[in-house]
Fold this protein.
Amino acid sequence: MHIKEGLKERHTLSVTVTNEPGVLARIAGMFTARGYNIESLTVADITEDDSISRITIVTTGTPAVIEQVVAQLDRMVPVHKVTDLTLLGDHVERELALVKVSGTGDHRIEALRLAEVFRANVVDTTISSFVFEVTGASTKIDRFVELMKEIGLVEVARTGIVAMARGKEAV
Amino acid sequence: MPKEQSGANILVEALCDLGVEVIFGYPGGAVLPIYDVLFQQKRIRHILVRHEQAATHAAEGYARATGKPGVVLVTSGPGATNAITGITDALMDSIPMVVITGQVATHLIGSDAFQEADTVGITRHCTKHNYLVKSPETLGNVIHEAFHIATTGRPGPVVVDIPKDVQVATAPYTKPGTINHASYKPQVKGDIKLIEAAVEMLAAAERPILYTGGGIINSGPAASQILRELARVTGAPVTSTLMGLGAYPASGEAWLGMLGMHGTYEANWAMNQADLIVCLGARFDDRVTGRLDAFAPKAKKIHVDIDRSSMNKTVRVDLPIVGDVGHVMEDMVKVWKARQHTKADLSPWWQRIEEWRAKKSLSYPPSTTEIMPQAAVQALWNATHKKNPIITTEVGQHQMWAAQHFHFESPNKWLTSGGLGTMGYGLPAAIGAQLGNPNALVIDIAGEASIQMNIQELATATQYRLPVKIFILNNEYMGMVRQWQELTYSSRYSESYSDALPDFVKLGEAYGWKGIRIETPDQLESGIAEMLAYDGPVIVDCLVAKVANCFPMIPSGASHVEMILADDQVSGELDDEAKALV
């Protein structure tokens, strides 16, 4: 016997939640308990009084699974609203990465040149290293990291995706 | 400014404000302050169980039989972990329950202190919601919110974990007003446009069926009444899940019996051949649908449920309506009448149903030498149904026989562990039901294996003078396991024999119960009469045919129309695909 799987889609969800202890564990736990995937998850408080956090989740699954993910999130007590940005249509997705590169001489100059092309900022430097801050779509960051491998990539830290629908309305 | 009082006092005050009359619990180090407050008051009755799991099942039984939330109080660590099974059971069967757990003092949390467990972490996966209360100032509001969440929307268990220092520290408490939760707002009324569409689909259907579930019972007695009205005006046949039995009376003319794995031939064939299925407060559980790709292939499906996540979870439906099933059915009946729909001529449909019914799928081979377990349940029904008894069960063959052969006329009379299938549920649930209904006849129909899983609760019934009855269908096997082993594993009875059984009569007597043994068919009626005549708790050890199987049965991985009706159809070995299914 072999286990079959259906065709998967990638969806970006925006979830607003009450900022209370355990809320992230609750959401992440629901994903593992029900066998859903989390490709990326970001969370931060978005209100002045620290009352509400916005979570951006990138998940993959069949359309039926994605519908369940949204419904399961929506029924959780601290969840205010769930928006499937992918289903909604046009939206922007951005990610930030810190990329540490070491090297001297030509490698150092090439690193700076590439950073300029990618509009990456230097946020730390030593005689033999840089830390770049690069923002953009995940694919852009992938490409930047890929290029830096040839120059002297040391380590990468990425935020995961934050996303927002285009246009004047809030989710 | 209201006076300051201890967290423990605040808890008890809040419970009183919420109308709590009974708590099922077990004391321990981390709840001693609460127990001290309970000792000094008379408004709430505390029922001391013998194991925390039983406290949760007793609370479930109380909740299911009364419609009120069940309340549990246990200590930290093992107290909380012992309660997990019952909490999960309540989650699966949507039972309103609030579980108060003690916790080590806040400064000790995370230090692996004595009897410390991460209760909120552990119960996050098996509660509707849970709380760790870090100050007495917030305790009152949390308790009120916990009851609000447990009892509204799709009901479920809520855990409130209270560290010992929070029980001792003081704060003012005032009863909060109406709870207006920032994010939790269950949808009660269904969208009227969708309801109108549903009514039109019902009016146009030639082969409709109402597939009802536990949601109707959770909605309250009015929902059961309106279901009867909906069935009457539409003329549609009614079937029910295990959890929904009693919502529609078994004597009603539209009744087809239970559907699903051990449902009747007519109910399952009607589901398979229907052109419209109206699912009312049920959730297309795998025990109901059988093989999904062969489930109700000809039917359009309407799904009414208060939980949006139940929609399209396993079965795609044509018309999902989110709302309380009682309210939605009421609106359906209103719209039906306002549009002057009359009962369609469903006679060809009913004729087919009668043909299926003629199979008499619940019949079983009679015996004059042995007590057939089905006959025992029928005899029990004959002797008791006029008393409108509350029936609880354990889990296994006896549970299915009880569901098939004990006929329920009203809601809140049938208490069983459906979703989780928890052996050991029945006795504590009977205790909870009896406390909520002191004058009712409460019978736990049990198996000899399941009953041993919470047998210590015999003492609880004795202590509180609860006249619950246990009726054990004793076949010396974990019968359902044995049945599956016959069907799937060529009768290799791996560990399914109940060896070294206690003498249940003497065991009962040791706990202060009356014990009765029924060994032959001619003792059945008199034994039941003796049980009913005794004004106290009775345990009946009814020795039944050892290898009887529960039919009809839809085997794993089969569709509704591949039902097995009798033993001679049981094959030896199933393929891997079927073996992999539960």
Q: What stands out?
A: The two ends of chain A are 44 Å apart (CA to CA). Chain A has a mean pLDDT of 95. The CA atoms of residues 110 and 138 of chain A lie 22 Å apart.
